[in-house]
Amino acid sequence: MTVLAIKDLNVTFSTEGGQLHALKNVSFEVPERRIVGVVGESGCGKSTLINAILGLLADNGSVDAGSITFEGEDLTRLGPARMQELRGQRISTVFQDPMGALNPVLSVGRQMRNIQYRSGRSRSEKDARSEAMLRQVRIPDAQAALTRYPHEFSGGMRQRVAIAMALMMKPALLIADEPTTALDATLEVATIELLRELQQDIACSVLFISHHLGVIAELCDDVVVMYAGEVVERGSTRQVFHSPRHPYARRLLECDPARQSGRTRHLPTIPGEIPDLRQRPPGCVFATRCDQRVDACDKVPPDVAVETGHVARCILAEAR
Question: Are 54 and 93 in contact (CB under 8 A)?
């Protein structure tokens, strides 16, 4: 069963310099009880994708085409009231900055109690559930933690509180927006393990946004590689990491410091810059930076099915 299905999604923003095409023909699915990672460099459209799903695009942004189907409902056609019902109940989000996500003037217990306002439980029942969730994310002395304020927790603990709050209502879909970015390596590993454990316990699907390839490889079942607002490759984690077929996906993996076998003063990079999304190139969006460019790249490339579940938007995807 598919929890979230995005089909040919196009999002634009009106700017002083013209229409900025932030997302173009984005398509992928998040199956039930699976973790799907979205990876790409800054500016590839990850944040725009999240905001489009949540119905939180800026006033100058709009969904021009395509659909976002969640549990049978097209989110692009829902009104504000229905979207508000879904957010927090069926779709929850963990943001990368837990200090910004938590209200600094309210205790953790009060914030967790407020999230449950639609549950119909009594105050004591809400507090008991909040305490149980804090224990589940391994917050020591959970009962006392309910009375503390966000600034009284470390960064790692705040992130765990944010995860507990996101999973409080047992959503069908959890969107994790780079939740490990602000953490050190040790806490990052612990958070990954915790997310995997909680995802299995709650039986939810996860859309995990990150630029950290190691985290994606460790946590995710499937991977979506984005570049300049397009999905250039998607497939299982094993397919994409072991046999990347799009030149951008291949170069992105080569830039991972963890793949460097020896000491070096110069880490690999991808030459060039992301194109101006107000004036998209007529053909392949990666062509100006691609070391395999041919004349046929001047035309929009098709989505090539490399194997079952593995698709790359490149005319050379099948060539080996």
Answer: yes
At 320 the pLDDT is 53
| pTM of the predicted model over 0.90 | yes
Domain shared by 181 and 157, yes or no: no
Structure confidence by residue, pLDDT tens digits, 141-164? 999 999 999 999 988 889 899 999
Geometric angle at alpha carbon 160, from 214 and 176, rounded to 5°: 50
Of 98, 164, 169, whose CA–CA distance to 136 is shortest?
Answer: 164
* Measured CA distances, 166 to 67, 103, 196, 283, 294 (Å): 25, 14, 14, 41, 47
- The structural domain count of the chain equals 2
Q: Please indicate, yes or no, whether residues 85 and 126 belong to a single structural domain of this protein.
A: no
Distance between start and end Cα atoms, the chain: 33
List, as own/partner pairs, every contact residues 217-222 make where C-beta atoms lie below 8 angstroms and the sequence separation is at least 24, other chains included. 217/241, 218/192, 219/35, 219/37, 219/192, 219/195, 220/35, 220/36, 220/37, 221/34, 221/35, 221/36, 222/31, 222/34, 222/35, 222/36, 222/37, 222/309
At residue 319, the pLDDT reads: 56
Question: Are residues 204 and 291 located together in one domain of the fold?
Answer: yes
Cβ burial of 62 (10 Å; 0-12, 13-18, 19+) is middle
> 3-class SS at 86?
helix
Task: Please identify which residue in the block is written with the tokens 């992130």.
Answer: 159
Whether 136 contacts 164, CB under 8 Å: yes
Q: Residue 154: which domain range?
A: 100-168
Each residue of 177-219: pLDDT tens digit?
Answer: 988 776 777 778 888 888 899 999 999 999 999 888 888 999 9
